[in-house]
Structures are given as structure tokens and as C-alpha cells.
Write a structure and sequence with these properties.
alpha+beta; 176 residues
Length: 176
């Protein structure tokens, strides 16, 4: 059975040391994908932004700086509050996000209860996944009664033409 642990959380996108803007986000953890956490940022556009990375990275980042490359996470204090900073880098840009350490930790605790560290492999239904991969493909639909032919001249077929168009060698016989 797949357990899903979700939480809506407002993060702050840090624009400068003096300025940040709120960014609504949804944190999602699924025991069917036990090594990953998913964060969806709702940035006021038609298409939300999705990030997926290792749950272990987020757990470690609550306590000490970790990660390199696209995802870096570290705890800090901002105006006396404990926060966790997430630096995300992609070909489309970079973002520095600030999350409440208490809220993030509470959500992570729920994910750790759903799938304790070291039990993740047991959460994956390897036999089901393997059976699906190895199962024969469904039989294709019967096409006995269908005429499968591309009518375009580029593929050796004929171009559709109006019924009153002359064929090769015929002259136009139009009445004016």
C-alpha cells in the first residue's frame, strides 16, 4: 500500500538579504518512491515548478550543510528563527528558499514514520515492477479491414485530387 505524506508550506524566496517573497509549496513523500521527496512550487504561473531529490539530503540538511551541485541545504538562524535554506540550481536559473525548520522537521518526521531509514528498499514492490516490465505487450488492434497507406506522393502514394481534375495525359475540358 502506498502511503502519501503531504504538507502545504509557505517558503520564502530570498531575493536579497533585505527582501524575500512568499512562495506557496507542497511537500510530498510517497512510500512507493521511498528515497525521494517532491516539492511543487506554485509561483503564480500556469505551470507549477517541480523538484525531486533525495529525502536523505533533506533530513541531513536540517542538521548540517549538505549537498552539492543542483541542491544544497543547510540550517541557519534568521532574525532569531531557526530556518533551513535550500539553494536550487537548474539550467533555467537559481533560487534560494527559506523554510521554517520546525515545520519542515515535523513533515520529515511523518515521512520517517511512514518509511523508517533503512526500510526504503522494502517499500518498493520489485516483483510487481519486474512483472510489469516483463509482461507481454498487448496484442495490436486488428487492421484487416483498414487500408493503411499514406496518400502523399512523398511516400509513394497518390495525392488526393478533385474528381473533376484531369488525369495525366488528359486535357482540361472546361466550359466557359
Amino acid at each position: 500500500m502506498d502511503t502519501v505524506v503531504e504538507r502545504e508550506l509557505e517558503l520564502n524566496m530570498v531575493l536579497s538579504p533585505e527582501r524575500s517573497v512568499p512562495v506557496p509549496a507542497r511537500l510530498t513523500y510517497r512510500t512507493a518512491d521511498p528515497y525521494a521527496v517532491h516539492i511543487t512550487f506554485h509561483i503564480g504561473s500556469e505551470h507549477p515548478v517541480h523538484w525531486t531529490f533525495a529525502r536523505e539530503l533533506l533530513v541531513e540538511g536540517v542538521f548540517r550543510p549538505c549537498g552539492n551541485g543542483d541542491v544544497r541545504i543547510w540550517p541557519t538562524k534568521v532574525e532569531g528563527r531557526s530556518v533551513v535554506l535550500l539553494a536550487l540550481t537548474s539550467p533555467d536559473g537559481e533560487a534560494l528558499l527559506e523554510a521554517s525548520a520546525a515545520q519542515l522537521s515535523a513533515w520529515l518526521e511523518l515521512t520517517l514514520r511512514a518509511a523508517p531509514p533503512g526500510s526504503e528498499a522494502g517499500q518498493i514492490a520489485f516483483d510487481d515492477e519486474l512483472a510489469e516490465l516483463l509482461s507481454p505487450a498487448p496484442a495490436p488492434a486488428r487492421t484487416d479491414d483498414l487500408k493503411l497507406r499514406d496518400p502523399s506522393p512523398a511516400f509513394g502514394g497518390e495525392s488526393p485530387r478533385p474528381a473533376d481534375e484531369p488525369q495525366d495525359g488528359e486535357a482540361w475540358d472546361r466550359e466557359a
